[in-house]
Amino acid sequence: MKKRFLIISTFITNLAIFVLPIQAQYSGLGKDSLDPAILKRYAPTALSPSVTRPIESILDVRSPGLGMVTPDGKRMFFTWGITGTVQVWRLDGVQKFPVQVTGGQDATTIAGMTPDGKYLILSRDRQGEENPGLYLQSTNGGELEVIQHLAGVRTSLQYIGNDSRTIYFSANDVKPDSNTIYRYDLQTKKKVPISGGDGIWWIADVYVNPKTGDREKFLFAKATGSQSQEYYEYDVKTRTTTPLIGQNEKEEYGIQYGVNAGEYLVLTPKFSEFRRLYSYKNKQFTPITPELKADVASFDIDDQRQRILYSINDGGYTRVKAIATNNYEAIDLPEFANADHIYTGNTTRNGRFTTIGVETAKAPRLSYVYDWQTKKLTQWVLPSTPEIDTSKFTAAKLETYTTRDGTKIPMFVYRSPQCENTPQNPLEKPCPVIVHFHGGPEGQSIAGFNRYAQLFVNAGFVFAEPNVRGSEGYGKTWLNADNGRDRLKVITDIEDASIYIRKNWQANGITPKIGIVGGSYGGYSALIGMSKFAGSYDAGVSIVGISNLLTFLNNTAPYRRILRISEYGDPVKDRDALIELSPVTYSDRIKAPLLIIQGANDPRVPVGEAIQIQQILEQKKIPSQLVIFPDEGHGSSKRSNQVLEIGYTLDFFKKHLQ
Question: What residue stretches are annotated with the Peptidase S9 prolyl oligopeptidase catalytic domain (predicted)?
Answer without folding.
Answer: 449-658
